Amino acid sequence: MNILRKRFLAHVAQTSPEPMMVEVERAEGAFFYTPEGKRYYDLVAGVSVSNVGHANPAVVRAVQEQAARYMHVMVYGEMVERPQVEYATRIAALLPGAIDSVYFVNSGAEAVEGALKLAKRYTGRTEMISMRRAYHGSTHGAMSMMGAPEGEEWKGAFRPLLPDVQAIEFNDFASLERITRRTACVLAEPVQGEAGVRPPAPGYLEALRRRCDEVGALLLFDEIQTGMGRTGAMFASLKYGVEPDIVCLAKAFGGGMPLGAFAARHEIMATLQRDPVLGHITTFGGHPVCCAAGLAALDYLVEHRIVEQVERKGVLYEELLRDHPAVVGIRRSGLLLAVELGASERLFRMMALFKEEGILSDWFLYCDTAFRISPPLTISEEEVRDSAAIVRRCLDRL
Ligand SMILES: Cc1ncc(COP(=O)(O)O)c(C=O)c1O
Questions:
Q1: Distance between CA atoms of 138 and 157, rounded to whole angstroms?
Q2: CATH (domain of 215)
Q3: Ligand 1 — pocket residues by CB below 6 A?
């Protein structure tokens, strides 16, 4: 084992007993490379982060220029900083409906924390409803919203968590009745990611919206994984035509830099300013270098019409893989795919084969029988065909 790996094991905290231990030398487009020169197709994209590809020159330039101009100046929300203002203005124009106020934070979990606090503050209610097999982040509040009982295996050891939280089954119309006048908010991923890619049933998000309106609860969409083009529209809420009251963003929102946000109508957002003031504060939220990177990535998506190509590439993966006898089924929204193998032993064997053959994939928190395909959205059709051929080779060897 080389010295870097030894030091990694000794001094960098690990999240599992058997880390992958693949060393990254550099990354470009849909690939990353090890110091030995081995090339990997990145079919995870940092878990739906690198939507515009690794080392995208437009993003690199924006980061370098902003870093040289100024980095951190003063805690978020007081100073006028051009990268924040320009990015918030662009995002507000693209977000559904009347959402026009963007609160920048550092991560997805923090975006969820802010959104939950905002919903409680605005409605004056305390009950919060989440979906079974939801994932919203790893802090106490976000973790509280991992829908039990399925979320229990992840969060049980950390109780007590937030009180007054309930979970309903995603796509189950009957359980919408559990949303009542006590409910401050319902938090949902429009397409459930870590559940193993579960798109909404026809009419479900509309029914959820209607029920929230009936009882005066706020509807919160976690678009942290589905946002910035992943499902074939800039936001999944636009794809499915349902407007939330608050939307949470992160991952690809920072163009590869750490950045998140929760966004709402100005009238809702303004409740964080008073009684008391400083309802949510964050030192680094909206870091100017991260905002510059996110804005450059957004510009790249729009100028190169990347989002318009997402559905075609997603369909192509599906066509190239679905007839393989080892594939039990494929669930998909845009370029977010779960390829179902039917058994976790097969999935873990597949992961080992992927590592040998130069593919980075992953399983899902609530689904260890399917592997993930969520490459940079900029992957070319030729690269889709080539990576699918390697995946098929691994499936042959299963
Ligand atoms: C849907 C969803 N929400 C929230 C998060 C948490 O984001 P972060 O890891 O930036 O806290 C994730 C991360 O995987 C996610 O997929």
A1: 13
A2: 3.40.640.10
A3: 47, 107-109, 135-137, 189, 193-194, 222, 224-225, 250
